[in-house]
Amino acid sequence: MIELTELRNRISSVEDDLKSRVQTLNTLDALEAFRIEFLGRKGKISELFKLLGQIEQGERATAGKLLNNLKQEANAIFASRQEDLGSAALDQQIASERIDVTLPGVYHPLGHKHVLTQVQQEIESIFLRMGFDVAAGPEIEDEYHNFEALNIPADHPARDDWDTFYIDDKTLLRPHTSPVQIRVMEETQPPVRIICPGRCYRRDTQDATHSPVFHQVELLWVEEGLSLANLKYLLEVFIHEFFGEGYETRLSGDFFPFTEPSVQVHMRAPRAKDWLEIMGAGMVDPAVLTNVGYDPEVVTGFAFGLGIERMAMLRYGIDDIRLFFGNDLRFITQF
Ligand code: DAH
Fold first, then answer.
1. Which residues, 6 or more positions from 111, have their beta carbon under 8 angstroms from its beta carbon?
2. CB of 178 closer than 6 A to ligand 1?
3. According to the model, what pLDDT value does residue 57 have?
4. How far apart are the CA of 304 and the centre of ligand 1, in A?
5. Average pLDDT, the chain
6. Which SS3 state, helix, strand or coil, does residue 250 take?
7. Which pLDDT belongs to residue 320?
8. Torsion over CA of 132, 134, 139 and 140, rounded to 10 degrees?
9. Which of 20, 43, 200, 250 is close enough to 266 for a disulfide, judged by CB 3.0 to 4.6 Å?
10. What's the 220 CA to ligand 1 centre distance in angstroms?
11. pLDDT band at 28 (very low <50, low <70, confident <90, very high)
12. How many other C-beta atoms are found inside a 10 Å radius of the C-beta of residue 139?
């Protein structure tokens, strides 16, 4: 037999145990294990119910009531703790999955046109508007187009300037875009009006003003009745379009095997003191016209070759040609 007082004591010790430990449980899994410990089939509360049979007949109803109260209380405690932990878990989930719509998006950098490409395209568009076509020729060139047809025979000292990277005895990386003049004239009859932008190669050691790889734009206009005056006017239009109004242009004597006369073109910025050399030019040498089957008694023409890097350096005040080829985005994205 078990006294009712004894049962009361056991009930209150289970109750104390339950109440003191429930607050320390921090996960739903731990709470469930705890619930089974008390309310499971073999749990502490179920065990107490088994004692009912040992309670005196007259006190069983009271004992049953006490036990049911305990069970109800335990269920209520678990339910409330479950709710707390459940909403804490939800809070945590919400917090961890939260999307901060004010965060900056993922940066996908867009490509950027290289300043040399920009300058080249701008030069192209200026001449396209004046009725020129854009021509192209191979970067691996043969000696005939690179030298002989341009009136630079094998033993001519001027050849040294353009002697460059040979692939074999007769083939080389072109040191200038002038051979494209020959290729275009070989394939078309006058009038010819083209520009040819392109990459060139020279046996130059790299420094602030030299690069073994660089870019030129070649221009060629052949037609009846062209003179140096037409060249000068064309240059002035171009320089005003590219650099701005107020620039002066000056021609002075020079020598190129493929032009006669040959000139150096200088320009001077408004209010500036110094003249800057910007390109070589001249009237196409009659020998060159003859080489492509044109009659120099009927047509005349002029040509020039300018460096794209040099134009970009003058335009933007860039003082080192190596910057163009360094691939440093801090430089490239400035333009
Ligand atoms: N081809 C020359 C060079 O690379 C530049 C040049 C000068 C081109 C005079 C021309 C010209 O068409 O007429 O230095």
1. none
2. yes
3. 87
4. 5
5. 93
6. strand
7. 96
8. -80
9. 250
10. 10
11. confident
12. 14
Using a 6 Å cutoff on CB, does residue 151 contact ligand 1?
A: no
For residue 48, the Cα-to-chain-centroid distance in whole angstroms is: 76
Which atom, in ligand 1's list, is nearest to the CA of 177?
A: 1
Nearest protein CA to atom 5 of ligand 1, as residue: 305
* 3-state SS record for 173-207: ECCCCCHHHHHHHHHCCCCEEEEEEEEEECCCCCC
pLDDT confidence of residue 200: 97
DSSP bridge pairs for 303: 220, 282
User: Does residue 172 register a pLDDT over 80?
Assistant: yes
Q: What is the pLDDT of residues 69-114, one digit of tens each?
A: 989 998 998 888 888 888 888 888 898 898 888 888 888 888 889 9
What pLDDT does 59 receive? 87
Residue 24 three-state SS: coil
Phi-psi region of 111 (alpha: psi -120 to 50; beta: other; left: phi over 0): beta
Q: For 144-153, give one letter per residue: b (16+ CB within 10 A) or e.
A: ebbbebbbbe
- Could you tell me the distance, in angstroms and rounded to a whole number, from the CA of residue 10 to the centre of ligand 1? 110
Q: For residue 51, is pLDDT > 90?
A: no
- What phi and psi, each to the nearest 5 degrees, are found at residue 192? -120, 130
- Ligand 1: distance of its center to the CA of 187 in Å? 21
Q: Is the CB of 259 under 6 A from ligand 1?
A: yes
Quick one: pLDDT band at residue 160, thresholds 50, 70, 90? confident
Question: Cβ distance 256 to 282 under 8 Å?
Answer: yes
Cα torsion for 9, 15, 17, 23, to the nearest 10°? -160
Given a cut of 90, whether residue 239 has pLDDT beyond it is yes
168-181-143 Cα angle (round to 5): 15
